[in-house]
Write a sequence for this structure.
């Protein structure tokens, strides 16, 4: 089998995707196809029974944080990436309406006044002998017995008002395929908008958890600097009395200087994160204090993801939807390009009134009709039409390949995010054990010091160890939140319990209405 044949076998064996724009007459578009790789997707991400349905709305509320909810709401109303994506969506909506307009006759209202003044010995006057007659000559070269006095000039004034129309009969489905392709482009753009929306939400959530983590890191570092400063002073005093060696002294000093140096770095990172969040919210940096109270305590979400999530949840990912719609758009454009090889049949005409005097323009007997039917068949175009077909077919192959890649990437991202979330949960549990041990050690050293059997230095060291464990926990907690966010993002939303058939049926009309490129708009 040749490489070309293998490629087409992978990319082209029935795209069971969605609605195909129906055609009442001929259509030369290829049959819808599902790439073999997509058809062979596993049924789910594990061997357990499926659990859950796709639910894309307000999934960020799973973090149970009202501050985060308000931030996301603000981002969804003020983010400039969303405004830009909405503009592209509106552009594609109107491009669809432009393409669809060719399905209907075009009408135009015309009104004009024409003034003509020509010499009598030119044009028709010259043909009937006006060039041989002198002004005022009553014969003008006409046969004997026929007299006609030629004027010096022929002058006409014509007023007209008419309704013009034109229509191309779409026998071969070219216009319908173009309209269908434009509709698919709109659907793809709408999915792109959802991708941008998902990205904005994810960026808001991720940056918020980064700020929460960095604020806690700053607090712990400040506490650590204070403790290490006190520890350094005690070590220096003990060194002066000969109770400890120089190695311990300089080790403690090094730890103290390192903690002091780390603090401004983390503060800079915090300022940067807050500035990036301000940009996401459509604000200048430093102007989000009203949305970020001093105390932030989000719930990272430690509930495991239900096993057996079905792969069909990928159908809800906006990037998969967009890639699928673009395949359909390219397929329909192949049909449109193929139809250009065949004749076009059109009808043009004008119906209206015409008169030499404005007062007589709308008299019933002054009407006129002009009708023109035309057929244009391409004979020789220098290979342009076949080249256009080749371009359309090549684009179809490209979009098929992009669709397969998108599905494979989506599947890989979901598997990776699920695995990462499970591993983050395990690390989270281990870090909690680490903190418990550090707290137990601190309590023991405190009791020993209070009981007179332990020293204060050991107590300070236990506090430093606990702060170190808590700093690790802050990072692990943020990692857990990020991994759960990755699961939401890879699935394109959230997963919920299955809906009843009644609820699903009740929601369907609203979804269908929202899918129309002309939803909520009239047409002219």
């Amino acid at each position: 089998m040749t490489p070309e044949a293998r490629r087409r076998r992978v990319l082209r064996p029935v795209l069971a995707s969605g609605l195909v724009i129906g055609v009442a007459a001929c259509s030369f578009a290829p049959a819808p196809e599902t790439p073999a790789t997509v058809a062979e997707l596993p049924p789910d991400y594990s061997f357990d029974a499926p659990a859950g349905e796709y639910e894309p709305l307000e999934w960020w509320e799973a973090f149970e944080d009202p501050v985060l909810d308000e931030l996301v709401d603000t981002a969804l109303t003020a983010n400039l990436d969303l405004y830009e994506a909405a503009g592209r969506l509106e552009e594609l909506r109107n491009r669809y309406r432009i393409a669809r307009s060719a399905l209907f006759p075009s009408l135009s209202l015309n009104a004009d006044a024409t003034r003509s003044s020509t010499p009598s010995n030119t044009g028709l006057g010259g043909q009937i002998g006006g060039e041989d007659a002198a002004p005022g000559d009553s014969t003008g070269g006409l046969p004997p017995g026929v007299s006609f006095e030629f004027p010096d000039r022929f002058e006409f004034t014509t007023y007209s008002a008419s309704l013009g129309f034109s229509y191309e009969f779409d026998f071969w489905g070219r216009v319908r395929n173009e309209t269908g392709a434009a509709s698919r482009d709109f659907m793809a753009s709408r999915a792109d908008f959802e991708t941008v929306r998902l990205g904005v939400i994810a960026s808001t959530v991720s940056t918020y958890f980064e700020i929460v983590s960095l604020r806690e890191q700053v607090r712990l570092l400040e506490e650590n600097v204070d403790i290490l400063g006190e520890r350094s002073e005690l070590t220096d005093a003990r060194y002066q009395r000969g109770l400890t060696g120089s190695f311990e002294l300089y080790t403690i000093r090094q730890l103290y200087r390192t903690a002091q140096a780390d603090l401004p770095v983390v503060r800079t990172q915090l300022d940067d994160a807050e500035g990036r969040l301000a940009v996401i919210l459509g604000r200048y940096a430093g102007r989000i204090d009203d949305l970020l109270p001093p105390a932030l305590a989000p719930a990272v979400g430690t509930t495991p993801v239900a096993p057996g999530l079905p792969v069909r949840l990928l159908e809800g990912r906006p990037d998969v939807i967009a890639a699928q719609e673009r395949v359909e758009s390219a397929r329909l454009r192949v049909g449109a390009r193929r139809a250009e090889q065949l004749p076009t049949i059109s009808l043009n005409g004008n119906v209206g009134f015409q008169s030499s005097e404005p007062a007589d323009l709308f008299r019933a007997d002054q009407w006129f009709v002009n009708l023109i039917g035309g057929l244009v068949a391409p004979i020789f175009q220098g290979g342009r039409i076949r080249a256009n077909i080749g371009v359309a077919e090549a684009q179809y192959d490209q979009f098929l390949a992009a669709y397969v890649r998108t599905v494979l990437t989506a599947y890989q991202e979901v598997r990776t995010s699920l695995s990462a979330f499970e591993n983050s949960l395990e690390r989270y549990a281990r870090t909690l054990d680490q903190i418990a041990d550090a707290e137990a050690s601190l309590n023991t050293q405190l009791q020993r010091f209070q009981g007179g059997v332990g020293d204060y230095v050991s107590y300070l060291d236990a506090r430093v160890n606990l702060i170190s464990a808590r700093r690790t926990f802050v990072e692990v907690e943020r990692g857990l939140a990020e991994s759960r966010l990755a699961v939401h993002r890879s699935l394109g939303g959230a997963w919920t319990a299955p809906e009843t058939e009644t609820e699903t049926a009740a929601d369907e009309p609203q979804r269908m209405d929202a899918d129309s490129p002309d939803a909520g708009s009239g047409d002219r």
Notes: The two ends are 53 Å apart (CA to CA). Residues 121 and 242 are 132 Å apart (CA to CA). Residues 1-25, 47-54, 497-515, 520-524 have pLDDT under 50 and may be disordered. The longest strand covers residues 153-169.
